[in-house]
Amino acid sequence: MKKINSDEFKTLVRESKGDVYVDFYAEWCGPCRSFAPILGVVAKDETVYSVDVDEEGALAIEFEVSSIPCLILFRDGKEYKRSVGVIPEKKIRAMKN
User: Fold this and answer.
1) Residue 32: active-site member
2) Using one digit for the tens of pLDDT, what is the confidence trace for 9-25?
3) Which pick of 16, 39, 54, 65 has the fewest CB atoms within 10 Å?
């Protein structure tokens, strides 16, 4: 799972074809730390990026991320679904349906 900034977000997410998961998180967030290993499993066969809301506040504001962890599934560069809080791997994968 790669941590990206706003410049990389443009090319890796907005201009992407297909499905991309983006995890909005913060280093100080306990639930975010417990969510990371679950996302790591998903990242073995899916595209998953992470965005630190403290470093990339403009992206968090743009996507109205007010609680973390917030996982957004982008499809062809546009927001498709989102989930807030820690969820199991099965639910992450089910977001694609």
Assistant:
1) yes
2) 999 999 999 999 999 99
3) 54
Say how far apart CA 47 and CA 3 lie, in whole Å: 12
Number of helical (H) and strand (E) elements in the chain, helices listed first: 4, 5
Options 1, 29, 84, 86, the catalytic residue? 29
Only one residue has tokens 């965005």, namely: 51
Element at 72 (helix H, strand E): strand 70-75
Q: pLDDT per residue over 9-68, tens digit each?
A: 999 999 999 999 999 999 999 999 999 999 999 999 999 999 999 999 999 999 999 999
Alpha helices in the chain (DSSP H): 6-9, 30-42, 57-62, 89-94
CB within 8 Å of 30: residues ≥ 6 apart: none
